[in-house]
Amino acid sequence: QINVLTSQVVVACGLGAGTVSEIALALKAQRPVVLLAADDLTIRFCQQLTDDGLAVAPSVAVACRQVQSYLASMESSD
Predict the structure, then answer these.
(1) pLDDT tens-digit map of 44-59
(2) Does 73 score more than 80 pLDDT?
(3) Nearest-CA neighbor of 7 among 78, 70, 76?
(4) Quick one: which of 57, 77, 58, 76 has its CA closest to 67?
(5) Where does residue 3 fall: left (phi above 0), alpha (psi -120 to 50 degrees), or beta otherwise?
(6) Residues 6+ apart with CB under 8 A from 33
(7) Which terminus of the chain has a smaller tally of CB atoms within 10 A, N or C?
């Protein structure tokens, strides 16, 4: 929980019980979540948890760009 609540953006890989819990906590705390290399089932499940704040990245490079984009938008809104 500490990792999620102290993060500005959360990158999730896999769909174990702990990961699902952290994704849900991040979304509840209004932290953006990037799903890295997620399968269709994982994407659909996570989309049911939120209307906003969820991105899907097929690779680490794309995930890094998504994180940078989220951080830039946060800085510009301050």
Answers:
(1) 989 998 988 899 999 9
(2) yes
(3) 70
(4) 57
(5) alpha
(6) 9, 10, 11, 12, 23, 26, 27, 46, 50, 53, 54, 55
(7) C
